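Dig into this one:

. . .
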Amino acid sequence: MKKGFLYIILSAVLFSTMEIVIKVMSSDFDFHPIQLNLIRFFIGAMILAPLAIQHMKKSGFTFKKEHLFFFIITGFLCVVVSMTFYQLAIVYTKASTVAILFSCNPLFVVPLAHFLLKEKLTKRTIWALIISLIGILSIVNPFEISNPSGIVYALLSAVSFALYSVVGKKGIQQYKCDGVILTCFSFVTGSLEILALILISKINAVSNWLTSIGLDVFANVPVTQGITWSTLPSLIYIGIFVTGLGFAFYFLAMDVTSASTASTVFFIKPALAPILAFFLLNEAISANTAAGIVFIMIGSCLILFADKKPAKLSVHRPKIHSHIRSNG
């Protein structure tokens, strides 16, 4: 059990530094957000591959042609859509705000699972959603928003990641794979999809068209630009440690404890990330942000405790503590 809690702490710390490192790399080293997406998820997939192979042997899962379309969809939702919004959010708003709002993605799973998987809503989950929504509004503070772009991108990232979670859950049930296998293959297909889109963005006609309609951030995206000896340590950290080992420690924690216990990673992150951003980026923690963190953690705990009820009382409750509830 001690080993499990060590894995949880390591995963939580690594995930909590994610937005900070990406913020620094985007602003100080001038890395393109989509370029960073490609690099970190490709490296993350390579780090997760040995663990995924081990899980495939243990579960007897073998990759077949019918699995390809499923992983193409999950890779697109996770890496291309959700993580692109995530990267853009970090560019346009505070790293701590993105960390907090993205950590709400498990809560968006509840209504999506209700409508797409026909899972029943309970009074406890409805109250959890209401309390968490109050927390989100407290952090966002709609009366004082001057530039809503970053907030909108962060929420879109959280919602699309929740959709990935629901689609992934359905696929896990249908194809009998597990979280490690799903995440690794999704990272692989998502990285390849981003690479394909980047290469398309370099075509002059496409680049000019994207620029003409105001989407110049997607035009002529670099692949290797900015990779130097001075930036290599940051790339290694974001790719190997945060994306690769962060997920690996999370899954190892799940193996030696339980999914519910491992999910405490995502209760630690909303509290720890703003503190780290305060010390490392000088991002102030306002009173409304602190209040929002408390509301979000209360809402998350309500669902966590609901999942720990006896099976006969919770047979229809959505298990949002699934493996795919990670942060980037």
Observations:
- Residues 2-314 form one domain.
- The chain has one domain: 2-314.
